[in-house]
Protein 1
Amino acid sequence: MEEIAGRINERERRAATYAHDQWLENGRDLLTAKAILGHGKFEQWCEWALSYTARTAQKLMRAAEVWVSVVR
């Protein structure tokens, strides 16, 4: 049973790491999109084009900004 639990836990750990990487990549892409769209158009674009709200997009962008400053 320990072996099975170990495999499950390892897969969960890898999935969580992968998800965090994806969130940061999405945050970077969202920062790029916001720069391209310009003032006042980003929130509308998020609501139209994405599967989550502009507020979630803002959180992802903030995470990407913070992470970049930590890595430097």
Protein 2
Amino acid sequence: MTGVGRTADELNAQIRALWPAGAVQPLDRDRYERLLVEWAEAARAERGEQQLAA
């Protein structure tokens, strides 16, 4: 965990929840895109923390 915000795993679960029928619904597109950006930032931060701990 990065200490702030949600973990990449938490965000991934929310992203997947937007794909119940195999495609993001048009009304969910903005939320999906924001979650992707947040997920990428969390994943980068988590990788950085793992490298520092090694």
Protein 3
Amino acid sequence: MATPQAHDTAVARANEALRTYTLSGEGWHRSPGETLQHVLTDLLHWCDDTQRDFDAALERARRRHVEETGQADGAA
């Protein structure tokens, strides 16, 4: 299970990544949910270009999150 410090570090990294989108030319017009949608869409495009399996990576990320939080999917 992730320590509170590891959780806070993960959230800080995510905030920093999302801040890049928020500070973009169009970003300030978007809600946090819309910003997240744009990040995910860009990652899908990146996966297309680099022949990565987005769904497989997302599933692995979900499993890691469950391991780190000790909670089942959707219980957080």
